[in-house]
Amino acid sequence: MNILAIESSCDETAAAVTRGREVLSNIVASQVEEHRIYGGVVPEIASRRHAEAITGVTGAALKEAGVTLSEIDAVAVTYAPGLIGALLVGVNFAKGLALSAGKPLIPVHHLRSHIAANYITRPDWEPPFLCLVVSGGHSHLVEVRDYTDYRVIGRTHDDAAGECFDKSARAMGMPYPGGIALDRIADEGDPDAYDLPFPHVADHPYDFSFSGLKTAVVNLLHNAEQKGESVSVPDLSAALRRRVCDMLLRATEQAALDLGHTSIALAGGVSANSELRRRMEAMCASHGWRFGRPELCYCGDNAAMVGVQGYYEALAGHYADGSLNAYATMPIDCLTDIK
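and the corresponding structure tokens:
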């Protein structure tokens, strides 16, 4: 089944052609350089750039895959969650393309597609498994019971892990995207140089709260500035990176032990974090658990993962018609507009 997939949930305009788990092409047009000027994604600019890039990116994906639109069996598109203006560009483009070409339309949830990135990297990876989904906007612990059957057992109560990284990095003067810069600088630092808090959510052992940790970093920087003291950016970055990983690993390990999971996966943009990947692999090895993580090229937003998840949504009969809308928020276990 050849699927043409479209992704436009944030600031990457992406298109891909997939066949089952096989990636025939994967084209991404990034807007990072433009948004770096503002220190973060500007939704209106992102939407306009998607509108400008989406036709060319789609054409490039078809060309790289060596297929024509007539050889495509279905069109898959990210329709939730994300920046609503950005999502609308992709959804409306996909609807128009599917209608004009007479192809079925497959709506895909963004977090489901991030989880599906593991299927690209590991052809033998299959449910059930426990997945830690971490990105700039989401931090979830998800039981993946089947390819389209999910149960969220843990989530952040405020900021996401990626948001904590990005905003702390910005406070330390790093360029956007801050999480990537912080990960690199942290390799040069001493994580023991600063004692950062370890927030817990009372009575919710699988949940997260990163707001207080972010605030602790910002307050540390402000207090040092007021006193005329210097702060070691590499050391503070290393301390923050370790603490975030501590929190993510603690909840994941506890959930796996309590619920009897022996296959653990990472997904989302923060799954590219070097310490998280390293420590998660070591934790799984210590318990004799299987460990899955996407290749770095599939950690960020891309359309290949949308196409792969779209394949499983199609097998489950999850299609949409011309009334498909975009949604800024939507639980991973509750789809809307499925016909």
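(Above: one complete record from the training split.) The beta strands are 2-7, 12-19, 22-30, 74-80, 105-109, 129-134, 139-146, 149-155, 263-267, 290-292.
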